[in-house]
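Quick one: structure tokens for this chain, please?
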Amino acid sequence: MTLLLAGDIGGTKTILRVVEISDSSELKTIFEETYHSGDFPDLVPMVQQFLVKANTPTPQKACFAIAGPVVNNTAKLTNLAWFLDTERLAQELSIPLISLINDFAAVGYGIFGLGKQDLRTLQVGKPKPEAPIGIIGAGTGLGQGFLIKQENHYQVFPSEGGHADFAPRNELEFQLMKYLLDKHDIQRVSVERVVSGQGIVAIYQFLRDRKLATESPEIAQVVRTWEQQAGQAEKSVDPGAAIGKAAVQKSDRLSEQTLQLFIDAYGAEAGNLALKLLPYGGLYIAGGIAPKNLSLIENSNFLLNFSQKGRMRPLLEEIPIHIILNPQVGLIGAALCAARL
């Protein structure tokens, strides 16, 4: 048995987990704890405190998934004054092998630690074991990545595809793009501005300001509170979650229209990624938004917008599509990545 340390490090919270991996690559969680990232000046004292509480031998390997880019084994977190370096971490934590990976790359590794209960299949398709695997995930932002088979394992490649241009396909989406250009005084609109948690709020504001539906007092209050807190590091409300919940419950027409437009754009962008990769190994939808709005996605035009690519439609209809239901897929991926060190 080998002890591993896995971490999912975000600007707000960090989850640490000690994992035992068997010779058959089965993972067993030994101890887990969640911390408020801002309570610590650096990752090292957090991990040291965690390992004391875990009361286990020092892990032989560690992998930390970082909410931000990793360059030359170093990472600077976007919302924290932490600068992480694998050599320093290994020395100060007395863990011989340490890796830093992008949090979306961790999702790619985590796919292989999921069971059937962790997935909801939207499209069975015609899987091809040797083909690439695609990942797309709307949450705070829009992550995209892919995996390529190399001998007996997969190599994970994150990307910045979420920052590609938003491609409107009808009059309403063209109006949305113009609205965002004017509202933010910008030269272009990235797809992340539409297909993400911030995108849900932006779509709601667009439909509200165009008076395409009437606001409910409850959702209006949440959105206005969020708007008044613009620029603050931490906000007291989550309008994207409130809008999604109201749409699922069918309690607010404007929220329903918001999620309909959001899901249409999500499906279209997933189809764009699929065209570029042809991921017959599967396209996995990660992020926190899809599981929370599962019923809406399953009963929407997501698949229609995914495959509506002209002559390429028959190709896209053969790609397996799965929604990841397990919110800890990144932590699982960090553990599996640590095992490979």
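The chain has a mean pLDDT of 93.
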